[in-house]
Amino acid sequence: MNKLELRESEKGNGIYAKAAISKDEQYIQLPHHLTITSRVCRDTLSTDSWTPKFTGTTLLHVFLIYQRFVATESSFWRPFVDVLPTEFQTPLFFADSELELLKSTNIPSATEEQRDSLQKTYQEVLEDVPETVVPRDVLTFENYVWAAMVVMSRTFTGKLLAQKDEQDTRIMLPLMDMLNHDVQAKVEFNDTENTLNVATCIGISQGDEVCYSYGPKGNDELLLGYGFIIPNNPYNRYTLRLNYTQDPLATEKQELLDQADIKTNEFYLQIGELPTDLLSLVRIMCMNDADVFYAKRDGAATNLGLRLELGARFMLALYMDNKMALLLQEKPKEMTANVRLALAYRQGIIDILQHAKNALETSILRLFDHGCQLFTSDLHSLPSYICKDGQPLPLDATEDGNRKRKRVDEDVDLAQNFIDNVLITEESFAKDPEFQTAAEQIDAEPDVLLTLFILRIRMCPNLPWHKAVVRLESFKHPMLAADDPETMEMYGEMMMEMGEVHDMLFPLLTNLFPKVFVKEYFTADLFLWAAGIVESFQLQVPANQLYNAECDEKGLCLV
User: Fold this and answer.
1) What pTM was computed for the model?
2) Which residues contact 340 (CB under 8 A, 6 or more apart)?
3) What is residue 410's predicted lDDT score, i.e. its pLDDT?
4) So what's the pLDDT on residue 402?
5) Cα distance between residue 559 and residue 84, in whole Å
6) Rounded to an integer, what distance in angstroms lies between the CA atom of residue 53 and that of residue 74?
7) E strand or H helix at 62
8) What is the three-class DSSP state of 198?
9) Residue 184 carries which DSSP code?
10) How far is residue 444's CA from residue 321's CA, in Å, rounded to a whole number?
């Protein structure tokens, strides 16, 4: 250990090399009598009439409180305990205003879980430890939390020792516990009869900090357990939890998720990747009545087509936007050390969310482009339960996610081309001037006008969506396809309402605009069929600068 020295730097206290340390050289030899094990704790605390019932980290907690507040200055362990930190920058020690800065992250709930767990073990300690061993004026919850943070941030696995009774415990190693974290640091432990030896697996130059890897930990773990974070941490991740229990179709969608072997609604986002099952789950979350009806009937919840692929990505991108907005909402009133730490942690989450959003937008643009190609080629990507011969889609949302994006104006062109030419919207009426003139004089809901336009497209081969609409002639919304009483009853009101709408419009529209609304193309049965298409194929493109849209664009995606 004569090659090491304790030094203060801008990062705080650390151990540095006074001289170069060669690869495989042992730079710490720690005698066994200087290691704090469960056996040491138990022997120290036990009396003639009492032995601790608790084990593991709880034993270490009580030992530390005893050594700091009860043991005399002559205690063997007192010098070590006296140099332990008395304050920590973990969220357990944050003021409410500081923790408020992290309210849109997983940290507050994780901190509460930590506190609840410690409160539980603290109560067990109070019930077991005699006041003659640790008086109640020092066995406070505040001191217990301090001891817990020492153990959490400065202990090692008992597996480093050959002693069999320490394999499943945590141990304290003086000096080793002062090494700061570097995930690249590699060391090798060798336990001999009398000492625990530590050798570096890489050379350390004179003047360099000597570190130890705490493991590949994200900033959640580092902040909660150690009180620091690493900017641009490659192991940082954000836990995304999706809740679809309020969806009216939650039960049916859960069945589809079970069929697809998707067992969780909790996902970990990291820079550079989107979990595969995340998109699989969100596709199912985006399903409407018809999607669920046919997917359940045919047992298919894969290859769901362009509409659901885009819908899933829109939903996730909107989630990222909303979460980032919440993270930036809370502004600090004063800049304490904890506030700076909270803001740095928050920025790490924002970076993950922004990268995920960028990857989703890259994928969305590719899908826009692919949709345009399908449309101009009279092809489609519809799921097999709606229409056969669907074309495969480029589904990997992270592919090329890190590539340099095209110019913004090219992105807008891609998006606008899809919205203007592939989607069927109210703006599409302009491609049929006769229908547009008539529609301007009809007092009806937008979905009713779209229903009329679908029938008009079916009637007019010259309209660009004609083949796409004709392709769906055999499609039936569940209100028309269901043969079980329960489903028929569910859609009975909808069918009655649409029937009444048709009867209000016809034959009036045919009399007013005979060339536009030709009688045989606008029957009640066809009107119900077209209403089912409008209900089943809607896609909402959210407002986004990327799409040059200031408000949401809603239309029908039939490819």
Assistant:
1) 0.88
2) none
3) 62
4) 43
5) 66
6) 27
7) helix 56-65
8) strand
9) T
10) 34
- Whether residue 107 is predicted with pLDDT greater than 50 in this model: the reply is yes
How does pLDDT run across 171-214, given as a tens digit for each residue? 999 989 999 999 999 999 999 999 999 999 999 999 999 999 99
Of 159, 180, 210, the closest CA to residue 37 belongs to 159
Name the DSSP class of 275: -
Q: How far apart are CA 542 and CA 415, in angstroms?
A: 11
| Residues 224 and 107 sit within 8 Å (Cβ to Cβ) | yes
DSSP per residue, 286-347: T--HHHHHHHHHHT--S---HHHHHHHHHHHHHHHHHHHHHHHH---SS--HHHHHHHHHHH
Dihedral over Cα of 95, 96, 102, 106: its sign? positive
Query: What are the start-end ranges of the H helices in 101-249?
Result: 107-128, 141-154, 219-225
Q: Residue 401: pLDDT band by 50, 70, 90 thresholds?
A: very low
User: Contact at 8 Å (CB) between 463 and 457?
Assistant: yes
Rounded to whole angstroms, what are the CA distances from 353 to 279, 323, 364, 392? 15, 8, 16, 28
Could you give the C-alpha distances from 454 to 412, 459, 470, in angstroms and in order? 27, 9, 10
* Predicted confidence (pLDDT) per residue in 357-366, tens digit: 999 988 999 9
| Distance in angstroms (rounded) separating the CA atoms of residues 198 and 176 | 9
Burial class of 339 by CB neighbour count within 10 A (0 to 12, 13 to 18, 19+): middle
What are residue 190's DSSP bridge partners? 197
- Res. 398: pLDDT tops 70: no
Is residue 315 within 8 A of residue 283, CB to CB? The reply is no
